[in-house]
Write a structure and sequence with these properties.
14 helices; eight-stranded parallel sheet; globular; about 550 residues; five-stranded antiparallel sheet; alpha/beta
């Protein structure tokens, strides 16, 4: 592939990796939600052919790897996280052969591939669950799941008080083969996603095989969905406010992940395991990152923090301390396919994120949110560790808050009776080019599976590539400078040193001579003397750092007279 030219005219080359290095310690990983990335066949749904054709965008951007959310055969009750076959590819996305070719082609371009593995639950259409329903109570097929008789005189009440993450009870009653109301099965998410019983050796053996299946095909790592929820208290007791949690962050998870680590380390080029873990306590999170368990885990505390200097610094300090205790690299993420887009969240009165406090139909202050999202780009990319970048964040895409109810697909929205906005607003298909939908997402005339706003023409990749002041140009420049810092002798951003700064300002040295300054106050502040500006998230009039602006500075060499 011929090299491309960046916005400043520099040559761009694909990232180079050695076979044995722990590449994940400093990698920037681009998250692809395949249904919404690029549609290669015009059916309105993104697919592997479309993704393969757009790999150039990722190379030009300057990322190290791509993480692809589930492409497995699925009825799509939860966007592909209800898996029928963890070794297959849903026909809407392509074929297993296309998946193998994509993995190989991405690697030829210097991009490693990370896939999702979904071990907590399967689809209701999975062969195991179909067999369990047909077997009836007491059959060995039901031991693969959590089937229990109900409470109440006729078993009409759920077996315990657990609630679903998507609202309502975490139990659904089945009709037995003889037509009578029967047992209940557990689903921490949607009823279409029955939870597996990880106390059963058959489940453990199956997923060890699944890991090897994808590692053997060149996948560089696996992201473990709902990684703290797999094992349950075998008594399935009621959840209480003061007792131990019956299904989250249990001690019996650690032996499982140690066994998976042995599989990952058995390959000549070691494979990555990264956990999706919504744990507020950094010390609890770090226990999963001990040297013989997972390599990394998502740092959702950073994503959930408001745009506030003290809160962000506290999160950064706690994250670094917790990870340092076990020798693991931290990860930093601003957004993903489950949460409100950064440019919208940072423009609201409440700039934090919590699933219980999502703000339906609140677009926020678009200009303010974008300005803060630009500053957050430089803050995040200067922090030591790895970064996960959700598709469209490099374009500054906003949350689509006015999506009509009839177009919403997310079970969070549907099971709430419409009170929860769900996650569709951050999953709108990518705009690539053109003045009107589908903006190059698919062929002209095709209709994307979720409608795109009519106002997105200035946000397309093509429009931003031509604009040196665009969000895309900022990300490309920042990633290029970050890579230079990582490869320059003596500049290894593996730790952080805070610098003296006014209240409301985050300032730290992230490489031997580089520092990051972020102004989270409402007033402009003078930039420190003796430093040269390498990159800024916005204009710096008269040598001042305006509100909600960040800058990367390099210390000037002292002159001799």
């Amino acid at each position: 592939m011929s090299p491309e030219r960046g916005p400043a005219g520099g040559r761009e080359t694909a990232p180079a990796h050695g076979p044995d290095e722990e590449w994940w310690r400093t990698a920037v990983v681009y998250q692809v939600y395949p249904r919404s990335f690029a549609d290669g066949d015009g059916d309105g749904v993104g697919d592997l052919a479309g993704l393969c054709r757009r790999l150039d965008h990722l190379v030009r951007l300057g990322v190290d790897a791509l993480w692809i959310t589930p492409w497995y055969p699925s009825p799509m009750a939860d966007g592909g996280y209800d898996v029928v076959d963890p070794r297959g590819v849903d026909p809407v996305f392509g074929t297993l052969r296309e998946a193998e070719e994509l993995i190989a082609e991405a690697r030829r371009r210097g991009l490693r591939t990370i896939l999702d593995v979904v071990p907590n639950h399967v689809s209701r259409d999975h062969p195991w669950f179909r067999a369990a329903l047909a077997a009836g109570p007491g059959g060995p097929e039901r031991a693969l799941f959590h089937f229990r008789p109900g409470r109440g005189q006729g078993g009409e009440l759920p077996p315990n008080n657990w609630g679903s993450e998507f609202g309502g009870p975490a139990w659904t009653r089945v009709v037995e083969p003889d037509g009578t109301p029967g047992e209940w099965y557990l689903h921490l998410f949607a009823p279409e996603q029955p939870d597996l019983n990880w106390a059963d050796a058959r489940v453990r053996a199956e997923y060890a095989s699944v890991l090897r299946f994808w590692f053997d095909r060149g996948v560089a790592g696996l992201r473990i969905d709902s990684a703290t929820l797999l094992t349950k208290d075998p008594r399935l007791p009621d959840r209480t406010a003061d007792g131990p949690h019956p299904y989250a962050d249990r001690e019996d998870l650690h032996p499982l992940y140690r066994s998976w680590r042995r599989i990952a380390d058995s390959y000549p080029e070691r494979r990555l395991l990264v956990g999706e873990m919504w744990l507020r306590d950094p010390a609890r999170l770090a226990r999963y990152l001990r040297p013989d368990e997972l390599h990394t885990a998502f740092n959702f505390g950073f994503l959930q923090s408001p745009w506030d200097a003290d809160r962000l610094r506290a999160c950064i300090d706690a994250t670094l301390a917790g990870h340092a205790a076990v020798g693991a690299p931290p990860t930093w993420v601003l957004a993903n396919h489950d949460v409100t887009r950064t440019a919208t969240r940072y423009g609201r009165a409440d700039t934090s994120f919590d699933f219980a406090r999502k703000a339906p139909n609140d677009p926020g202050d678009r200009a303010l949110g974008t300005r803060r999202a630009r500053a957050a780009c430089l803050l995040t990319l200067a922090l030591p560790g790895s970064v996960y970048l959700y598709q469209g964040e490099e374009l500054g895409l906003p949350e689509v808050t006015d999506l009509p109810s009839e177009h919403r697909r997310d079970p969070m929205h549907l099971r709430s009776g419409g009170t929860d906005p769900g996650r569709d607003g951050c999953r709108i298909p990518m705009p690539w080019s053109g003045a009107a939908p589908p903006y190059g997402f698919g062929p002209d005339g095709s209709r994307p599976w979720l409608p795109q706003p009519d106002t997105w023409a200035p946000l397309t990749v093509a429009a931003q590539r031509a604009d040196p002041a665009s969000m895309l140009s900022l990300y490309r420049a920042a990633l290029r400078l970050r890579r230079t810092a990582l490869t320059t002798a003596g500049d290894t951003p593996s730790r952080l040193s805070w610098l003296p700064a006014p209240d409301g300002v985050l300032a730290f040295r992230w490489a031997d001579s580089l520092s990051c300054w972020v102004n989270l106050t409402a007033r402009r502040l003078p930039l420190p003397a003796g430093r040269r500006v390498l990159l800024a998230s916005g204009p710096l009039p008269d040598g001042y750092l305006p509100p909600d602006t960040a800058a990367w500075l390099r210390e000037e060499e002292p002159t001799t007279g």
